[in-house]
Design goal:
The protein has helices at about 15-35, 50-55, 60-65, 90-100, 145-160, 180-195, 200-210, 220-225, 240-255, 300, 315-325, 345-360, 375-385, 395-400, 420-430, and strands at about 40, 45-50, 70, 85, 110-120, 130-140, 170-175, 260, 275-280, 290-295, 310-315, 340-345, 365-370, 390-395, 400-405, 410-415. It is α+β, with helices and mostly antiparallel strands. Strand 12 (about 340-345), helix 12 (about 345-360) and strand 13 (about 365-370) form a beta-alpha-beta unit.
């Protein structure tokens, strides 16, 4: 086989049909639990004014400094002047911009929103990290209360439990205090590393100047060793922040949610305060984390709105699918072929056209071999499709007004009147095989024929 002339760009991948089974299943689970909790779906645009991400995420974060995909024709202007746009690297900043722009502060608070879709980062491609990836976002805007933080986590626990990956994950939690708490801590970190700069890798020397808190989640061995003797955030938390965190942990315990206090956990984006958390891989840690979040009370104001508290979470769908596969979780296959229709001769082909169409309209997954192939080759094709049943119509059957119904699993067949073919198929398959979709019995009776 010759090498293909074109390949997908580095850092992106094709979502093939077998992976779409997982993708659809994950989306259904997210939507089911979000709707159950009263969340409404929002889809911010794929690209925004770059300033939305610079103001919201932070100019000196890796996401903004290294990973933004900028778009638009160089030098192009609109009625607001020469703007530079960027593909969304995450949902939260865009959702908060929409909250301000569309006056959502006038709605009953808090406003509960969720998003599912592709995001983009010009990241170094590696295992589990892509330049185009799928993310889901859970946001609660308009209320500051540790019980809200706990409820967000409880929603995520339900989703990961439904997908049967919760046992593979560890919930890590921390509190990074208020802006005033962090300022004191940043000063202490800078003092601690004064005179030690030469022991830091180049990337962390730069972070020490621009974003010292990022040193806490450094993956560099030399930095990790130094941090063992560094001051901790907890030493600089105000009494109010400590009380908030203690109450939050008490709510998690009340909900029966296991967690691991992680004093050096920080999030890589500037807008977080107070509660931060992450669902990490129980065996490898952050390398295969499915996502994280926390409280981001300053963000709405940073984007030009009135001071508005908020909390949220962002999860990587590809990471979740990876965990499902590692755990041996099979996604339900909605694409199972129920009926394969085989035919021989022009009259049989004409009659089968209507038969195939009618079965599909009734929600029966039907494939029709309407070419000129022999009956033997059509049956081989039915086997390849793993069809459960086969309807065969030849020239003799056309004359007799009959059709052959074959059970592909049992290897048995019978001849029935042609006009009884559809009722017989519906009877065999039963109503559950029609086009309503239920995630699992565990998720109850919720049905949703949509895909988004």
């Amino acid at each position: 086989m010759s090498e293909p002339k074109y390949r997908s760009p580095k850092g992106v991948h094709d979502v093939l049909p077998e992976d779409h089974q997982y993708m659809t299943y994950v989306k259904k689970a997210i939507r089911h639990r979000a709707r159950q909790a009263g969340y409404k779906r929002i889809d911010p645009p794929l690209f925004e004014d770059r300033a939305v991400f610079e103001r919201g995420i932070g100019e000196h974060t890796d996401v903004v400094e290294k990973e933004l995909f900028t778009v638009g024709r160089k030098g192009a202007e609109d009625d607001a002047g020469n703007k530079q746009f960027a593909l969304r690297p995450e949902f939260t900043a865009g959702i908060c911009r929409a909250y301000i722009e569309h006056g959502m502060q006038e709605l009953p608070q808090p406003v509960e929103l969720y998003s599912i879709g592709p995001c983009f980062r010009y990241d170094r491609p590696q295992k589990g990290r892509y330049r185009q990836f799928h993310q889901f976002s859970i946001e609660v805007i308009g209320l500051s209360d540790p019980s809200i933080d706990a409820q967000v986590i409880n929603l995520l626990v339900k989703i990961f439990g439904d997908l049967k990956i919760l046992e593979r994950l560890t919930l890590q939690v921390n509190n990074i205090g208020s802006a005033e708490d962090r300022k004191k801590y940043v000063d202490a970190i800078k003092d601690f590393f004064t005179g030690k700069e030469r022991h830091l890798p180049e990337v962390d020397r730069s972070r020490l100047i621009t974003n010292p808190l990022r040193l806490l989640d450094s993956k560099e061995e030399d930095t990790i060793i130094l941090l063992k003797n560094a001051p901790t955030m907890e030493q600089f938390l105000s009494d109010e922040s400590k009380e908030y965190h203690a109450t939050f942990l008490d709510y998690l315990t009340t909900l029966g949610i296991a967690f691991t206090p992680t004093p050096r956990l920080v999030r890589g984006l500037d807008y977080y305060n107070q509660t931060v958390f992450e669902f990490s891989d129980r065996s490898t840690g952050a390398q295969n984390a499915v996502g994280g979040g926390g409280r981001y009370d300053p963000l709405i104001e940073l984007l030009g709105g009135k001071p508005t508290p908020a909390v949220g979470f962002a999860g990587g769908i590809e990471r979740m699918i990876w965990h499902m596969k590692e755990a041996g979780v099979k996604a339900p296959n909605k694409d199972q072929v129920d009926v394969f229709v085989a035919q021989l001769g022009p009259e049989a082909k004409k009659k089968c056209l209507g038969l195939v169409s009618a079965l599909r309209d009734l929600g029966v997954h039907t494939v029709g071999a309407l070419g000129e192939a022999s009956l033997k080759s059509q049956m081989r094709l039915a086997d390849r499709f793993q069809a459960r049943h086969c309807l065969l119509l030849g020239q003799l059957e056309v004359k007799d007004g009959t059709i052959i119904l074959r059970d592909m699993t049992a290897g048995k067949q019978k001849q029935i009147p042609f006009d009884k073919a559809i009722p017989e198929i519906i009877k065999i398959l039963g109503k559950k095989n029609l086009d309503t979709y239920s995630i699992t019995d565990k998720l109850g009776e919720y049905t949703d024929p949509g895909e988004g």
